Amino acid sequence: MTNKAAVVAVHRESDHRFSKGTADSIELLQGLGVSGDAHLGATVQHRSRVRADPTQANLRQVHLMHQELFDALAAKGFTVAPGSLGENVTTVGLDLLALPRGTRLHLGRDAVVEVTGLRNPCSQIEDFQRGLLKEMVGYDDAGTLVRRAGVMGVVHRGGTIRPGDRIDVVLPEEPHEPLDKV
User: For residue 112, what is the domain's CATH number?
Assistant: First the structure.
């Protein structure tokens, strides 16, 4: 399946900080994540997950968010730039939240990220901008919890990705499994 999705910006941060610095390119390492990023590793690297069980597989190696979310937030008065919310890859033209679990995103020439689930935003988002957490997590008209903070994935195949790179989507075999928090 091919679409007009693209990479808007790429980010990494060697320290555990809320926001990530924008880079000209990032290198994805198979089974590990983003080279030079604090969340690089085969086992969990997010502090809360390490405290709970440091031997868990790292299903959160790469964080992707969509520019369309930032645009919608701007319309509500929030100022959120790519990398501000800690994502590694900012995308455009792709409904990340609607992808099924196991979707493979081909980023640029070589890199492939397999989508593992939804990012479960934490209270640090509220510290970043008051009222933002309510925009990132809410309920739909049916009362179902909706997470809007992007998706997480693992690096299936390594490679370099840059702003402007095309994103091709390969869906898993049916039946499709909806995304849940990871």
Answer: 2.40.33.20
Short-list 142, 119, 103, CA closest to 5: 103
Tell whether pTM > 0.85.
yes
* Structural domain span for residue 121: 5-170
CA–centroid distance for 38 within its chain: 14
Q: How far is CA 145 from the centre of its chain?
A: 19
Q: Closest Cα partner for 11 from 3, 2, 21, 1?
A: 21
Task: Look at residue 163 and tell me if it is in a domain.
Answer: yes
When divided into structural domains, the chain yields a total of: 1
Q: Is residue 162 part of a domain?
A: yes
Domain assignment present for residue 81? The answer is yes
69-125 residue pLDDT tens: 999 999 999 999 999 999 999 999 999 999 999 999 999 999 999 999 999 988 889
Q: Is the peptide bond prior to 175 cis by the omega test (within 30 degrees of 0)?
A: yes
For residue 39, give the 3-state DSSP assignment. Answer: coil
**Selection from 59, 62, 71 nearest residue 36 by Cα:** 62
